[in-house]
Structure formats: structure tokens, C-alpha cells
């Protein structure tokens, strides 16, 4: 015999009264994520100066699809675009705040989301002075968890330029699997570049967490 309380008995009153959040609700109101050294939170226009401080660096922009910011206005325009994504409930990015300083030092989030396939792609960037300290690995783990548990995703992808292997290391360290090289896949800053495709399935992620 099963549990006599049935499904309803197992739910709290709050869960019964609160309709489940849709992906659009979640993208409109990204849940704040805490890691050991970072707070991942929605951005606001007040973050413009912090974004500009690292996004003006051509090395940070070299292997991403945006150009290094030339002025604070570029960072404000980026944030206006992010604010619209939040308003529209479409896939978007978190700001990464370094708890030790309170400064926003990078971004990480969803590039696209496919409800039919319960799939999404993640992307990220971090201030150069903080590279190689494990910070993006920490952030990506938290975003993968959010994607599987909050967005109920089945598959999460990420891509990096072949000539940017440190990004691939981040994906590997988070349990993502290399699925292949896509030749000439992306036109970046005037050149067609090869990219490496990585992905993790919900079942891979569950297996990694099993004791
Ligand atoms: C890619 C990026 C996000 C990595 O973030 P990070 O916080 O430095 O990443 P982590 O410290 O967690 O891991 C970096 C790993 O790359 C390794 N690495 C660094 N340079 C490398 C290289 N040339 N070749 C191979 N591995 C390299 C590091 O040793 C480390 O691996 P380890 O922990 O096994 O030693 C960061 O460099 C960045 O923001 N770059 C600019 C924007 C960008 O390229 N975004 C990704 C677009 S796909």
C-alpha cells in the first residue's frame, strides 16, 4: 500500500497555494545563488562602472561574441539589453559579485533556452585579474544546479573557441562532456573560428552528486 496521505498530503499549504514558477517567471526574477566566494544575482544599471572596469579589456573580449567596451556608455547599453531580457522573461545572465570586495567581476547565464527539448546553453566571462582561481568553475556549478533544479532542464550545453582552452577546462571540471569540434562555426571579430561543443545531461549531473 502506498502512503495514505497521497500526493496532496505531502505538499505544504504554501506549495498548494503557489503556482509553479514558469521558466519565464524564473528568467524575469533570477533566484540569487550563493557559492563559497561569489554571489550570483540579477544585474542592475548600478553595475555599469564595474562591468566597464573589466569589459574594456580586449583580452576578456577576445574569445566572446561582444567587443571590448569603449566607454561607460557601452556598458550601460549592455545593461539596458539585460534589463529588457529580465522584463521579457527571456534567457539572460547573472552578475557575479566577489563577496570579498562586493564588486561585480563577471557574468554568467543562459544564451538560449528550448522548452521543447528542455535544453539551454550557458556562457560566461570574468575580469582578467581573477582568472585561474577556480571562480568560474564555482559559478558554473551553481548555474548548472539552478538549470537542472529550477528550470528542470534535461541538457545544458556550452561552447568555447578551440583556441580558448581554459574555458574548456571550466566545462570539464563541472562534469560537462566534450561532444565535438564545430569547424568554422562562429564568425567572431571578422574571422570564422572553430568551437568545441560540451554538454551535460541531468542524468550525468545526478550521477556526479551521488555519494
Ligand atoms: C575562461 C574563463 C571564464 C575561465 O575562468 P576562470 O575563473 O579562470 O576558470 P577556473 O580558474 O575555474 O579554471 C581555469 C582552468 O583553465 C586552466 N588553464 C588556464 N590557461 C590554460 C591554457 N592555456 N590551456 C589549458 N588550460 C588552461 C587553468 O589551469 C584552470 O584549470 P585547473 O584548475 O585544472 O588548473 C576566464 O578566463 C574568462 O573569463 N575569459 C575571458 C572570457 C571568455 O573567454 N569566456 C568564455 C567564452 S566560451
Keywords for this structure?
single chain, 211 residues, alpha+beta, Aminopeptidase, 8 strands, 29% strand, globular, disordered N terminus, binds coenzyme A
Structure description:
It is a single chain. By secondary structure, this protein is an alpha+beta fold. It has a domain at about 20-155: Aminopeptidase. It has nine helices and eight strands. It has helices at about 5-10, 15, 25-30, 50-55, 60, 70-90, 135-150, 165-175, 200-210; strands at about 35, 40, 95-100, 105-115, 120-125, 155-160, 175-190, 190-200. Strand 7 and strand 8 (about 190-200) form a beta hairpin. Helix 4 crosses helix 6. The two termini are about 30 Å apart. Residues about 1-5 have low confidence and may be disordered. Coenzyme A binds next to strand 5, helix 7 and helix 8.
Judging from the principal axes of the Cα atoms, what is the shape? globular
* Topology-level CATH name of the domain at 21-156: Aminopeptidase
What integer is the average pLDDT?
94
Portion in beta strands: 25-35%
- Could you say what the CATH architecture of the domain at 21-156 is? 3-Layer(aba) Sandwich
Distance between the termini: 29 Å
CATH class of the domain at 21-156: Alpha Beta
**What strand line-up does the widest sheet have?**
1-2-3-4-5-6-8-7
Could you list the spans in which at least 5 consecutive residues all have pLDDT below 50? 1-6
String of helices and strands? HHHEEHHHEEEHEHEEH
How many distinct beta strands?
A: 8
Rg is 19 Å
Largest sheet: 8 strands, mixed
Secondary structure class reads alpha+beta
